[in-house]
Amino acid sequence: MLSKAHIQFIKENIDSQLTELVLKGFPFEDVDASFLAQQISARQRMKKKLPSWIAKDDVVFPPKLNLAQSSSEETANYKAKIINGSEVADLTGGFGIDAFALAKTNKHVIYTEKDDSLFNLVHYNSTVFELKNFEMIQTTAETFLKNTKSKLDWIYLDPSRRDEAKKRVFLFEDCQPNILSLLPILQTKCDFLLMKTSPLIDLSYGIKELKYVRKIHIVAVENEVKELLWELDFSNEEILPSFKCIQFKKGKQIEFEITKDEASTEVTYAKPLQYLYEPNAALMKVGKFNQLAESFQLQKLHPNSHLFISATLEKEFPGRVFFVKKVEEYKPKQLKKQLKGKKMNISTRNFPLMAKDLIKLFKTKDGGENYVFFTTDFNQQKIVISCIKAM
């Protein structure tokens, strides 16, 4: 797909402005200029998301929309740790990031994709990566499931979250393929299913609709939830699932698994102590905090504040940790004089006003090393906690 001359041109212009390149024109008649522009643009944008793909000069990248819908290498490799079997299929192959990762950890991987251009592009890239255990079938997930005679160990699905008008959707029944309509046949074609969905999906809704969920993986990157991964075991219906919270931050992977029922774990409440803890985005999505408090021997400020406290530092806490400098009652008149014009990061937890309202009210500037939490303690007292990051 790319000649040596094309590759050299891309390398020489990797830091160039695309608009300037297009205006100057591309020195090739054997390839479309928009295709080369697409390759340069992708390599400029995907350095962090797909580093080992960028490292290979002859990898070809798809259009922007396909790239945006693809997993990152970090999250793809995480899925490959979950899925372990002799016969595995990715039935919504797309650009192939997940399928290529699965090929590293499984004996035989089947990739399916209905789109001609994507299928051909992935076929080419599979030769670049020298995949030997990789079978490709150009078809839909529905057709594959209907025609295959084999029972697989695992199937992976990442339903498209765009409708026919290219608008975003997220409910199971609105995605393509519709996982709810496929569940009966999937039960007969694999032992386990891993499905990626939008972070917007409500967890209780997913558990109710999918029925066979044994574990939900909540995957966050730089404190933003990027994926929900639903792990289904078709041999066990209506089980109580566990929740595995994964945070990828600055090259580090932080995990915390919630296996207990909230009601079985007691939590104590106290006023602010030396250290304040804010759970990461993955844990906030789950919304179950009692086991977290128990595991790290922390106390809570309030049942609904979701902020934790301790007298000693817990370095392994999965989230942000702050050193408390000052705690005071919420008195707006006094705070106006105190905070006006100062630079700080304002957050609210279980508080009647939003952060943007407080910034406007107190005329503060956003940013800096100071963090201020407006919250409510277990005595229903509105308080203000001033902190700096502990680590």
TrEMBL record:
Coiled-coil region(s): none
Which Pfam families does UniProt cross-reference here? PG_1098_Fer, Thump_like
The protein's name: THUMP-like domain-containing protein
Q: THUMP-like domain spans which residues?
A: 319-387
Q: Where is the PG-1098 ferredoxin-like domain?
A: 275-318
- Entry-linked SUPFAM superfamilies: S-adenosyl-L-methionine-dependent methyltransferases
CDD domains documented for this protein: AdoMet_MTases
Where does the signal sequence lie? Answer: none
Domain of life where this protein originates: Bacteria
